[in-house]
Every structure is written in C-alpha cells, then in structure tokens.
C-alpha cells in the first residue's frame, strides 16, 4: 500500500481539559479523584495499551498564579470571576500536580500542562510552575505549553489587564518566549530544558498570524533546544461571535462530509512537513467541533461522533502525533463527558453524561490498537464519495483493520451500502469480525451504541459501558471478498484477523474499573412526613421544622442508604514525590 501515514500510537486520540474546570473533571484533590473520570480513561487504556494523553490548560491558564501553600478548601485550584474578562482567574496549588500524578500512577496518563503567559513580566512564576510540575510529574510530564493562542493577543480581553501592543507581532511573541526561557534556565530544579510546547496558534478563525508564518519566522530553529513538540489549535467553526452568530442548523450538513476533515487537515500540510524535517511531533493540542463550547444540536449529536472519527483518522493519516479534543464546563455542547452540576457531583457517582465524542475516541482507539506501529491510509472509497469515506490501518506492512463511515441520514435503508473487502498480497482471510457504531439518526444525542454497548443519556453514566459486546462475524470468499454492510448512518470497524482484534482491547469489552473508598449517605431529596401532613404551600399552621434537601442540614431528611460502591483503597506512587494514598470518591 502506497501513501501510508507515519506509525501511530494507540493513544493518538486524547483530550484537553480547561484549567478552570479541572477540579470538576479530575477531582477535588489528590486524595479525592472522580471515579467516573478514571473509568472513562480505563476504557481507553484497555484498548490502546497505554495511558491517555491529556492537556490541562486553555485560556484560563493564562493568568494563573502558583500558591505553594495550597488553598483552605484543599482543592486543586481556586478561581475568581472578573466582569472585565471572558475567562475566570484561576490560581493553582501543588494539589493540581499531585492529582495529575496520582491519575498517572493508576492509569499511565501523560500530560501537557499550560503555563501563564498573559503577564509578560511574570517569568519567575512561569519558571516556578515549571519546576514544580516536573518535580511532581516526572516523566509523565511531556510538555509545558507556553502561550495559548498568542495570535489572538491583540484582543485585549484575553490578556486583561496586561494589554499587548497593536499590532502584536510574531517577533513580539518571540521576545516574550526568550524572557521565559532565560528564567527557566536559571532554575536548576528544571532538569528537562527541552520541555516547551508551542506556538499553539489558534484555530485559523479570525487569527492574526498562522502556524506557517510562525515557522517561516524561524520558530523551530530558534527554540530547537527548548521545544519538545510543535502544537496547534483548531476549530472548524467560530461560535464565539456576539454578532451574526452561525446557525448550527445551516452548517450541520458540512460536518457530514469527508471534505470537512480534509479541509481542516489541509491547513497544516506545511506544518506536518516542517515538524518531520525538524524532528518534532506535531500535536493538535486543542480542538473540537466549534469554538466557545460548540453548537447545541450539532456538537452533542451522533453526527459529531461521525465527524470526530473522520477528523481524527484524517490527522493520523496526515502525520499528526496526537489530537486532543477539548472538554469544558456544564454549558458546553461538545464535551466527551460532563460531571453532574452542583452538589450532585459530590453525592453520587453515576450521574455523569457521556458525549458523542467519547464514542469517537473508542472507535479510533480500537482502530489503531495497541501495537504502536499502526499506519493509516485514506481509501478514497466509493469513487471518492464525500459521504462514505473509509480508512485502512496497516501494521508492519500488512492490513489489520478497516474503518468505513456512512454519513448519510436515511432510516429507510436506501442509502446503506455494502463494501467488498479483498485483501491482496497475503493469504486472504476466511472470515472477518465487525463492530458497529450506531444511532437512529445523525441528530441523535443519547441512543448511541458502540459494539452493542452504550453509556446512556444525560446523568446516566459512571464511566462504564452498559450492555454486552456485540461483534459480528462475516464470511469471506476468494472471488468476492468480505461483504460488509454499512448502514446509514453508522461506522463499521472491520478486524481482518483475530490478532488485530485482540490488539484492540479485551474481547468482552470489560476494562478494569475503579471503586470508591468513601460511602455516601445521600439517596435523594426527601420530606419529613409531619411537615407534609401540616403543610399548605409554605408550611401551613403550626411550627415549621425548616426542612432542607441539602445534606448536612439538621433536618435534611437524608436516610442512611446503601454504599455508593464497594470499599477499596488504592495507593499510587508519584514520580518525584512521596507516595500518596489515593482515596477515590464518586464525584469528589
């Protein structure tokens, strides 16, 4: 097979967490990690054979300050919201890195961590955070992102109250990098001087300068001794506009075509070549279906899951090293998973919501498998139809798996198609196995299943799949090959051998999961029967008992109930730090 992409790791499909909500996703602190989060990660690790690649950062990293003494609440972060800024001001404590380190101890996760860059004079803070992150995370820290979307710094809201000059040029950006590099070099505790990730230019949406312009200005050559990975950030559409907003309904069809993925990759063709020539990995550090949380009805739909698979495999084919899909707060449509709001997250563990993009991650991770030598090629299927793209995955020169996508939305079956897979050059298989990603329509939000398993709808998941794995066997014939039906809409993953399927995770689809060492006594809102009997809207006559549904209140009405999960204690050893007892709690 000609035109194969570079060898890819099984954990190619990672994700990015906005710093301001890291406590909601990872957990309150290093001894209270969110069990559903660990379960979601465990599901991916069981397929890839390696820990996930995760970035913690985003716009909210830009003004963070380090508080070595931590915070009275014991949380990983402390944040305040300013009416003059579009992002909260987030301060971090050592607990952030201890929490990340404990997740690594359990699941082998590797991290990119964001550094503050809004204040160009805060080079000491940048160096101190870098030293602490390396000390605690050790080899699990693979990059420190210096500057988030610097091509948008002319927008003074992003760096308030530290405005940049107008115009803010690439040379201005280089000058600020230089100052930070010098500050980091002056701290002996930073042993890995080649740890920075950049330039992380934004999106190709209303940008001031592009990745190609930064590279042409000599970025990789100037910082060859400090640059670990070349990073970019991209969103196909801009949902941040306050005037003339984009209509999700109007643009939805553009996500249901192979051209969308090809167009996104086309922006970075030169960068992939430059990265390879310069001996660097090119990482899509932050991406998703649209900026500013995505579009409701599009980003949280099955169509987005189809798009995410096509987009990720297109970047794998184009020699990116990782693609990290962003996770934001409660009002974000494109999340891979979202914890329940408010105090619910502290009381129950099975109330998380799984987004369609998590299903994309499962499919892509199984498609690449755990061999770490998978090479992807775009098959240009069905005469190059933009609605039925397909990819083949090769290992050591031999075909291992095939991914076929049907973007068409037709429940009648008229746009289903059957692909005949004929394997040349080696002994053809007598049969293949197939797993399907399915939903009733491209607009479906909840009724999505991968290989017969689902993660439920809103507030219905603890990060573990529900149901039994369904894998179909298809007979193959020398003359006609293996006939694979691909319904509209769906994705088919074809395993061309038993070995290729075993490399993609446990056959029964049951990865290792995590239990909690803390019992919860909360079962839901209740009401005192005496109050109910004498009430009349606001309590009726007589003494009011002042009942509340908040746990801990004297008259909360909470009833001792079953434990949230079995009791267990997990201990993790963090590289570069003391051993920490990890007490995993549903919702933290």
UniProtKB/TrEMBL annotation:
Domain of life: Eukaryota
Keyword Signal on entry: no
Keywords of this entry: Hydrolase
Hydrolase keyword on record: yes
One family name in Pfam for this protein: Glyco_hydro_79C
InterPro entries from the UniProt entry: GH (IPR017853), GH79_Enzymes (IPR052974), GlcAase_C (IPR031728), Glyco_hydro_b (IPR013780)
Chain segments carrying region Disordered: 534-558
A GO term, aspect molecular function: hydrolase activity
Domain Beta-glucuronidase C-terminal: 390-493
UniProt cross-references to PANTHER family, sorted A to Z: BETA-GLUCURONIDASE (PTHR36183), BETA-GLUCURONIDASE C-TERMINAL DOMAIN-CONTAINING PROTEIN (PTHR36183:SF2)
Protein's UniProt name: Glycoside hydrolase family 79 protein
Originating species: Hydnum rufescens UP504
Taxonomic lineage: Eukaryota, Fungi, Dikarya, Basidiomycota, Agaricomycotina
